[in-house]
Amino acid sequence: xxxxxxxxxxxxxxxxxxxxxxxxxxxxxxxxxxxxxxxxxxxxxxxxxxxxxxxxxxxxxxxxxxxxxxxxxxxxxxxxxxxxxxxxxxxxxxxxxxxxxxxxxxxxxxxxxxxxxxx
Length: 119
Description:
Elements: H1 4-48, H2 54-61, H3 65-80, H4 102-118
């Protein structure tokens, strides 16, 4: 005859075992993820001399581990050399008279296009 109590105990023991394995695996992933975030925060502090704010740390913590790896690679490259600007506006008039709303931006774009066609 089948002893359902023993089967239930066995299933309960297996469930606890699997839960422990999954909890340890998840805890290790969280620890590794947090280490990556801490590395980025430390590089930020080293480069700029100020601490990364909590909101930014929270956003970094929400990123996928693969994305964090890529950001760490870029940060490692950037920390090895000083960054240089690679360009600016084509002419100074591009930076003046910045539009303050969508209508102004559309009007400016249309004016620039018409002037380009005429010239």
